Amino acid sequence: MTLVTADRLRFPVDAWGLLETSHVPGAEGALETLFSLGNGHLGIRGSHTAEADAALPGTFVNGFHETFDIRHAENAYGFAKQGQRILYVPDTHETTVWVDGEQLTLAGSEVLDYRRRLDFATGVYECTIVWQTASGASVTTRERRVLGAQSRSSLAIDFEISADRRIVVDFESHVINRQDQPTEDHSEHDPRRAGRHAGRVLEAVATEGANGSLRLAWSTVTSRQHVAIAVDHATNTLHQPFSTEADGDRGGVRYVLQIDPSEAFRLEKRVGYAVAPAADPELVDAAAAAVRGFDELAAESAAHYERYWATADIEIGGSPELQQAVRWNLFQLAQATSHAGVAGIPAKGVTGSGYEGHYFWDQEIYVLPYLTYTAPEAARQVIDFRHAMLPAATARAAELNVDGALYPWRTINGQEASAYYAAGTAQFHINAAIAYAAARYAWASGDDAFLAGSGADVLIETARMWASLGFFGKNGQFHIHGVTGPDEYTAVVNDNLYTNVMARFNLRAAAALDHPNVSDTERLLWSHMAERMAMPYDPDMRVHAQDADFMSLEPWDWETPRSKYPLLLHFHPLVIYRHQVLKQADAVLAMFLQWQDFTAEDKQRAFDFYDPITTGDSTLSACVQGIMAAEVGYTEEALRHFTTAAFIDLDNLHHNTIDGVHTASAGGVWSALVNGFAGFRDQGALPYFDPRLPDDWESLAFRLQLQGRTLSIRLTPGLLQLAVESGDPMDVSVRGSIVSVGTEPTAVPLEPTPAPVPSVFPRAFPTAGLSVLSPQR
After folding, report:
1. Annotation says 321 is catalytic
2. Domain boundary among 300, 321, 356
C-alpha cells in the first residue's frame, strides 16, 4: 500500500480482498474501518492487537445502546426528549506481546515485513508481521479473526508466534471495557460523528476468571440493557496460563513461555457475546454457549460467503480497480445486513459509532433495494422491524398533530432521537421511504401474504399521516408545507418536490389496497389527494423546482474555496438555507424512484440544472447522480459519479471513514450498477431494462432474485443477455420491447442510444462529486 496523504489511500489490486502491504502511520482510524469484520449483529473494527497501535478501536452489537436526556437550549413542545447512542461493548481482540522484554508495536518496533488482508471470499481477517527485535531475533506473528455467520454472537481469534532463535514471550490477552476508557475523538466538532457519554456508562454485574476462561457481564447505567462476554483460551502446547484476572473494566489471561526456533506458539481466543434488554440470570450462560473454535467459525463463514457471492456478486469486465472496489462495497453490505435479525441496519452498520448507531431512511432507500433483489427474506425482516415500530410511530404522529403513524427520522428503539428538528423530524419523507420499501418488496417477491398483512399496515398508516399533514389549497392542489426533503441544505420548506412525489406514491399504493380497515371514502380521498398533489415547476427554466421557493433563492458563491466544504462545517445553517446550493440529489432522486411519472426531457433538464449546484457533501448523493446521468445518456458523467461512490470509504473522500463504513453509499454502489448502467427499473407492469454500459467496460454481469426466480443479466457492448437460472420463464421489457426469457440465454441486441441534447445550464461547481480515479490507481 502506498499512502498518498493521511486521508487518501492506495491498495494493491486484489479482486477478492483488501490488501495492505506496508504500514505507514497516519491513517489508522480509516484503516480500522476498512478492515472491520461484521455480520449484521456483531462487529469488530480492524485495529491492530496492541492498544498503542489503535486510533479508535471498538466492538459493537447492533441495537445495544444507552439513552440520555436531550437538553435543548430552548425547549418546545414535541421536541425529541431522549437520545440513544450505540455503545462500545467490551473489546476482546486486544493482545499485548513482549519478546525478550520488548513490547511489539508498530509505532515502536522495527518491522521487516508486513501484510494484512481482508478476504471477501471467506470473511477472514489476517495480519502477518515480521519483527526485528532488539535482542536480535526475527519474530513472526500471525493473527486471524473470523466472526460466525449463523453463529452471529461468536468471534474467534487465532494468534501464532514464531522466531528464528530462542525467545522468551510474555503474552497477554485482554478484555477491555472500551466505552468507559478516556478517548479524544473530536466528535464535538463534526455533527456526523457520534458524541461520547459523560460519566460512567457500563456497570459490572459479573466478573469471573479462572484457568484461562473469563465470564464477564455489564449493565448500562440508564437503559439497563445487559451484555455478557465469555472468553476461553486454547493453545497448541501444554503451557498453562500464568495468570487469569478479571475486574470491572478489564480482564486478562497471561502466558509466559519460551519458544524455540523449531516451534510456534498458537493461541485461540474463543469469544461469545450475549445481550438482553434487561437483567437476565442466564445471560452469561448464553454467552458461553456462543463460544466456538476458530476452524469451526472459519468454515461456517466460508460457506456463508460462498452462498452469498453466488447470488450477490457483480462482475465488471475491463476495470480491475473498480471490480475490487465494488466487491469491497458488496462485502460491507453483507457485513451490515446478513444476520441483523430483528434489528435494523445502522448508517454505519456495525463498523463504527458514527451517527450514534441510528437507523435512518438510508436503510429503506439505499440498502433495501440491494437486499430485496439479493436476499428478499432479509429485506422482509427489516420491514417487519419497522412494522414493529408502528405503536411508537402512532404515538409520535399524535404528538405532532397528524393521523396515522409518523416514523422517527433517526432512532434505535423507535423513539425520535433527532435533536435538530429542521433537519430531523421535519423530514417526513421517512414515512414514504418505508412505504416504498414495503411496496417494492411486495412487487419484487410476489409475497401477497405480506402485502395483505404487515405491508398493508405500513402503507395505510403512513398514508393517513400524509392525508392529515397536507391540505387542499385555493388552487385545488394538495400541498404539504413545513417539511425538509433529502437535501438538508434547504430546510422546512413548502411543497418539497421529492416529499410530494413520494407522498403521492404512498397515497396511491394505499388507495390500491383492498383492505377491510380502509373505507371506500378514505380510499377515494387518498386517490384525489395523489392526483392533485402539488408539483412545483418553473415554466421559464422548464425545470421541476426542488420546492415552492427554491428558484427564488440567491445563487451560491461558487468561488467559495474547496477548504470550506462540506458547507455544514463552515457556515451557519441559515446562511446555507438562503442559497441555491444542494447537499445531495433531491429532485433527481424523486425522478429516479418514481421514474414512470416523468418524461425523458423532465429528467435531463432536472439533471442539467441540479447536478452543477450539488456539492456532494452527502455520501448519499454521488450514486444517485450517477444513476440519473446514466439514464439521460451522460455515460462519462455517470462513470465519474459512480467511481466517487465506489471509493468514498476506500479513499476516505469525506474524511470521516474513521467513524465507520458509509453503508448507504455501499448500497448506492449496487444501485448505480443495477439501476444505472444496467438501467433496471421496477414496480411497473414488467421488469424494465435500458442499459448504458461505459465505453471502457467490457461487460457487466449480476443476478436478481425477482418474483420467485433467479434472473441472470449480462451486458456487453451492444448486447444484453438474460436467462432465468431458477424458476419459471418470465417476460421483461427491454427499452419498451417485451422479451420472453427462459433457462437458455436470450440475447437482445442494443442499438446505440442517441446523444443527449447538450445542457443549457452552466456548470457552477466543476468539481462537484469529488471525482477520484487517478492515472496511478
Report:
1. no
2. 300
